[in-house]
Specification:
The protein is α+β, with helices and mostly antiparallel strands and about 600 residues long. The chain has 22 helices and 18 strands. Helix 3 runs parallel beside helix 8, helix 5 packs across helix 7 and helix 18 packs across helix 19. The chain binds a DNA duplex (9 and 15 nucleotides) through helix 10, helix 12, strand 10, helix 17 and helix 18.
DNA sequence: GGCGTCACG
DNA sequence: ACGTACGTGACGCCG
């Protein structure tokens, strides 16, 4: 297949790039920045990790094709002294009337924060703009080629690769200057190109009122971090190590030889070939398969427990303490705002959005001295959103009347009065309610319950006859996707669904499920993002010491001094439910605790 | 670097 | 008849 890339030649980088290494030149640049409404900038540093990065230089651009580089941290060559540069730039960067344009501005803001600059007014982050526009690759260099047809020099040309890789501080100033100026220049040009596209696609409000104001909120959360009780985890690790060792021994004894218990392939050989245990379809050894093999051989229960323990130990108990920052003594996750297909955030290094529920691990997360944790989570937010988007009468009335939604669904699909719903019936109904959000199939429902395919199929039919609005909504959403090629949230966030008109059944079905789920999951994300921005504004305006520290999709966790607890509780209880108006009330549950593992409703 | 597995919402 | 639940990130194995 031929490349989609335009055949016209790459544009030449005609440009005026200037090195700023005298006070005169710096003053001239500052006056130019002062006269501009907005400017693009970029930082050069010694590390991709903002918490470790040392500032090497800054580049600025106010006019396409023209840029300046201020070296401040090169190991050789002469340049201005870093602190004098910082103090001269600080007023401009902290001026909230001066718009800043950057590519992944959260990173640059973190670097500046480490030099005492609290940057204000990130007006356009080109990485996030590209994300909202559905660009597949968000790197500056790739976007420059794709959107501007400009081929930029990769950083490896300057610093090399592998173990011999240099840092920017070791690159000579003239080379670094050209590179850094191009970054600021291209960022500015991209902003000028992408902003009209946002406008055309109805994404500008989402961009300027949600995504851009969210950046400093996330930065604050990342920089604050969270305290971790490493001593506790280290002790826990030792006792887990003993248990893991004991389980390994029992596993080997049960079959008479050793093997690598961590190898699914070797385990499959033991279970299916050697022991001849029931071998359904593939050679999967996942938890569900093991669950089905229970009682057939002693190894099965040992393996189930071994998997649980080794997962907790390797992923959390052992890994988390290693990520404690030596300067702050806390762990600092990184939130990715431009990754998911639905608009959710993601969290990495470490991922604090998948810490196991329950006391054992979570109690290791503790508040600072004299503080408590307060967590606030949206109750059944996605079903409430489904009721709003679908305008289904029965779903809406359930939430308006504060009914137990799973009990109501159970009553409808089982055809039984609410007073006669058993725990089992409610459990099935809960799975069905979730299934609706995912574009459920009879097979999916069968797998998630003990129902047969036929029963599952009947329940789905009954569900859609009782909640006709939901059925109509899923059908119209799929239709919209087929016609437009994308679906959207309440704030206009889009997800393009390329497979929606595919002839392949499987591709098409997957696309349909994505189309059904994204507006729901994405709207939940819109709502919590708005709430985060408003809560943070309130915290700042009231000069509270409370800090927002985590977001786990439908939950916010705060660290609050004892004497601010009641105030932050009422702020959160005021703002979260009213962040975006739906056709149904939004409910928020608040818990307070002395660690993340022992939170109690408040 | 892809795959299987499993932690979360 | 088709053959799956939606969205993530981290770990260990294997090649």
């Amino acid at each position: 297949m031929l490349s989609n890339r335009p055949l016209r030649p790459k544009k030449q980088m005609y440009n005026n790039y200037y090195l700023v290494d005298t006070n005169e030149a710096l003053n001239k640049l500052i006056s130019e920045l002062n006269q501009a409404d907005a400017f693009a900038f970029d930082t050069e540093t010694t590390s991709i990790d903002a918490m470790q990065a040392e500032l090497v230089g800054l580049s600025f651009s106010t006019i396409p094709g023209k840029a300046y580089y201020i070296p401040v941290g090169h190991e050789s060559g002469t340049h201005l002294e870093i602190n004098s540069v910082i103090s001269k730039l600080k007023p401009l960067l902290e001026d909230s009337n001066k718009g800043k344009i950057a590519h992944n501005g959260k990173y640059d803001m973190a670097v500046l924060a480490n030099h005492g600059i609290e940057m204000k007014n990130l007006a356009c982050d080109t990485m996030i703009a590209a994300y909202l526009l559905g660009e597949k690759s968000l790197g500056l260099k790739v976007l420059a080629l794709a959107k501007l047809n400009i081929e930029m020099t990769p950083i490896t040309t300057l610093i090399g690769t592998g173990t011999k890789q240099l840092t920017m501080a070791q690159v000579n100033i003239a080379e670094a200057s050209k590179y850094a100026c191009a970054d600021a220049d291209i960022t500015l040009r991209l902003a000028q190109l992408l902003q009209p596209e946002l406008e055309n696609q109805g994404l500008m409000q989402l961009f300027t009122e949600v995504e851009m104001p969210l950046v400093p909120v996330l930065l604050q959360m990342e920089m604050t971090g969270v305290k971790l009780n490493a001593n506790y985890l280290n002790t826990l690790s030792q006792s887990m190590q003993q248990q893991v060792y004991d389980l390994e021994t029992r596993i080997y004894n049960s079959i008479g030889h050793q093997f690598n218990v961590n190898s699914p392939q070797q385990l499959a050989a033991v279970l299916f070939d050697e022991l001849g245990l029931r071998n359904t379809k593939k050679r999967s050894t996942d938890a569900k398969v093991l669950e089905g093999l229970k009682g057939l051989h002693p190894i099965v229960n040992f393996m189930i427990e071994y998997r649980r323990l080794s997962k907790l130990k390797s992923t959390y108990v052992d890994a988390l303490p290693l990520l404690i920052n030596h300067k702050t003594g806390r762990i600092h996750t990184s939130f990715n705002q431009a990754l998911t297909a639905t608009g959710r955030l993601s969290s990495n290094k470490p991922n604090l959005q998948n810490i196991p529920v329950g006391k054992e691990i979570r109690q290791a997360f503790t508040p600072s001295k004299n503080c408590l944790f307060l967590s606030a989570d949206y109750s059944q937010i996605e079903l409430r959103i489904m009721s709003h988007l679908s305008q289904d009468k029965e779903l809406i009335s359930a939430f308006l009347n504060n009914e137990d939604i799973h009990t109501q669904t159970a009553a409808k699909v089982f055809g039984v009065d609410k007073s006669n719903i058993t725990a089992d019936m409610r459990r099935v109904a809960k799975v069905i309610n979730f299934g609706v959000l995912y574009g459920m199939s009879s097979y999916g429902l069968e797998q998630a319950t003990t129902l047969s395919r036929k029963e599952a199929s009947q329940f789905i039919d009954t569900y859609f006859s009782k909640y006709a609005g939901v059925k109509a909504y899923t059908e119209s959403t799929i239709k919209e996707a087929e016609e437009k090629g994308y679906v959207q949230t309440i704030l206009g966030r889009r997800r393009y669904i390329p497979g929606i008109n595919a002839s392949n059944y499987q591709v098409k079905s997957e696309a349909q499920r994505m189309a059904i789920n994204m507006p729901v999951q994405g709207t939940a994300s819109d709502i919590i993002k708005v709430a985060m921005i408003e809560i943070q504004q309130k915290i700042i305006s009231l000069e509270l010491k409370t800090r927002m520290i985590l977001q786990v999709h439908d939950e916010l966790v705060f660290e609050a001094p004892q004497n601010e607890l009641m105030e932050i509780r009422s702020i959160v209880q005021e703002i979260m439910p009213s962040a975006i108006n739906l056709s149904v009330p939004i409910k928020v549950d608040i818990k307070i605790g002395k660690n993340w593992g022992e939170m109690e409703l408040s």
